[in-house]
Amino acid sequence: MIDLQRKHWLCIALVFLLFLSSLLSSYTPSPSLLKDCPPDTTSPSEPPTTHIFKNLNELSITHADEFNDLILITVLVRTSQINEVPDLLSLLGSLSYPLHRLDIAFLLTDATSGSHPVFEHMLSHNQHSFNSIVAYGKNMVTDLPKDKAHAFDLQPLMRAQLARARNYLTRSALKDEHQWILAMDVSLDHIPHDIIQQLMSVDVDVVVPNCMVKRDDGKIWGFEKSNWQDTELSLTITDNPQEDYIFMEGYWEMQTHRRLLVDMPTDADRHAKIPLDGIGSCFSLSKASIHRTGVIYPPFPYLHQIDTEGFAQMAKASGYGVYGLPGVLVLHSPEALDF
């Protein structure tokens, strides 16, 4: 009898607890009570860590024979050259290479508050279907008067500034998807519509065309004298200089007796490639993997070269091949100053 009474009261107690629990779960305090509650100081839970694996071996793969690799085009621009940008975009827009596989990156090297909107306005009116166009502004290059821009004594300083600007632009714009980098001057008058395919078809690490200039009398003259090949005589002349001495081409103050690409036959077969030891800034195509492995445009004397010529020396020292195509021509603007 006593056990039955205990079970009866236990059942009543259990029912009461369940009823009380349901009341508490549906209870919501009034706003006045919430207002007096201390704030919740607990921090939100941290987002989960993102785990990504990238096969970097694939970054070095190119498909030169398919002509569909993604290319990064890098261009340095001064404020005084902004008006040349639309003409350059028109030249690039006439290429037969798929435009949606071209990313264009500009670096305004002497950016001012007034130059930014002008540059942006010109880019916004581009009518071509490139994959992307991006412009950076970074004061990195001193804009010298025309009569001093090519002064021999100032070249090491100027080219060191340009080398830093090229490195800055390349590092800022290079993405994992890019397979080639096409570095070019803004002041070009003519490029063959299939120039990229011509350069890519030789499938080498670094390649340059022959950069010439068309004079007012219609004659074609050599322009880019920084595309060169060492000779026995030049190696003798340049042997054992001072540690920080820099050799430069195209100046009467310095005769190196190197073999220049502009002096080679321009009627050569367009696939005839010549090993080079130095290249210039006019027009060059290089595999992006070269830049990823640490080859730069040295802003300091590297094997007594600097900037683009130093880049060629560093690429060769790293085991890459550097070549020129004397039979493939691009024309530089005769009025413009060379970077």
UniProtKB/TrEMBL annotation:
It comes from the Eukaryota. The keyword Signal applies. Residues 1-25 form the signal peptide. One of its GO terms (biological process) is cell wall mannoprotein biosynthetic process. One of its GO terms (cellular component) is mannan polymerase complex. Keywords: Signal. One of its GO terms (molecular function) is alpha-1,6-mannosyltransferase activity. It holds the Pfam family Anp1. Belongs to the ANP1/MMN9/VAN1 family. This is Anp1-domain-containing protein. The lineage of its organism: Eukaryota, Fungi, Fungi incertae sedis, Mucoromycota, Mucoromycotina.
